[in-house]
Design goal:
The chain starts with 10 loop residues before the first strand and ends in a 6-residue tail after the last helix. The protein has a six-stranded antiparallel β-sheet. The protein has one domain. A hairpin with an 8-residue loop joins strand 1 and strand 2. By secondary structure, the chain is of the alpha+beta class. It contains three helices and six strands.
């Protein structure tokens, strides 16, 4: 039997998030998602080992969820890698390959990886279906929310003022 997906290449998407201040843009987060379509898919542990080897520092957390392993590296605002104990103590949230559910102005940066396998508790669970990776600056993400709102409000006020100006120019002189 031939699988329809075998005619397609692996899918990969990289999303880059910028601080939303016109003229002062800078990268504050990067997300990467890779879906393995072509056979053979990589082994889950091979991907995990490759990520660990690339980063060359012990992870802050390493656990598994129902889909596979989740690893994370959390750094304080000065860039020092946090231990698992310290990360738990200050309430740093794990991201599982994406962004955490919340960020604070005192957060540092973090990297997170999740390898997903939809095979359940059998041999196919050792074969990766997807890889999720994230790298983000928590304090900058927090700051971007307020900056996005204020930038939007300023641009909207400017557009509204321009629309009012155009409307007043185009009004005809009505005589009563």
């Amino acid at each position: 039997m031939m699988c329809y997906d075998q005619f397609y290449d692996d899918y990969e998407a990289v999303t880059v998030f910028l601080l939303p201040v016109p003229g002062k843009e800078r990268v504050i987060a990067v997300l990467r998602e890779k879906k393995f379509v072509k056979e053979p898919h990589p082994a889950t542990q091979v991907l995990v080992q490759a990520v660990k080897q690339k980063l060359r520092v012990a992870e802050t957390y390493n656990r598994s969820n129902q889909l596979g392993p989740v690893l994370g590296w959390q750094f304080d605002p000065k860039g020092t890698l946090m231990s698992s104990t310290l990360a738990k103590k200050i309430g740093a949230l794990e991201a599982a390959g994406g962004f955490p559910l919340e960020v604070r102005p005192t957060d540092g940066s973090a990297a997170s990886v999740k390898v997903a396998s939809h095979g359940g508790n059998n041999v196919s669970s050792q074969i990766a279906d997807q890889l999720y990776m994230s790298l983000y600056d928590g304090a900058a993400l927090f700051q971007s929310v307020g900056l996005s709102k204020s930038t939007y409000e300023a641009l909207k006020a400017k557009a509204d003022a321009a629309a009012v100006g155009e409307a007043s120019k185009s009004k005809s002189n009505t005589k009563f």
